[in-house]
Amino acid sequence: MRQGEPEKFPGVLAINIIGARKLKSGFMDKSDPFTEVKISKGDKKIIKTKVIDDNENPIWNHSD
């Protein structure tokens, strides 16, 4: 490893999805937001938060 290069460790990736702010409403009503994270290296993994109905400032506090 050269000086200044980060060490390369296969390991754990921690994902924290906290929330969102000021999402735009739909045409007739408020948004029903959720997030989806796809990780694709070897085994595919999809992390999806719950849907929060009628909320433009959702808080998920999701950790995976």
Any chance you could write out the topology, listing elements then pairs?
Blueprint lengths: L15 E4 L16 E6 L1 E6 L10 E5 L1
Antiparallel strand pairs: 1-4, 2-3
What does this protein look like?
The protein has no helices and four strands. The strands form two sheets. The protein has a two-stranded antiparallel sheet with strand order 1-4. It has a two-stranded antiparallel ribbon with strand order 2-3. It is mainly beta and about 60 residues long. It has one domain. The mean pLDDT is about 85.
Keyword list:
mainly beta, two-stranded antiparallel sheet, 33% strand
What can be said about this structure in brief?
By secondary structure, this protein is mostly beta strands.
Question: Biggest sheet, open or closed, and with what strands and sense?
Answer: 2 strands, antiparallel
State the helix count: 0
Radius of gyration, in Å, reads 17 Å
Shape: elongated
Number of strands: 4
Sheet-strand content, in percent, reads 25-35%
User: Helicity level, as a percent range?
Assistant: under 10%
Mean pLDDT: 83
* Domains, number: 1
Low-confidence stretches: none
Distance between the termini: 30 Å
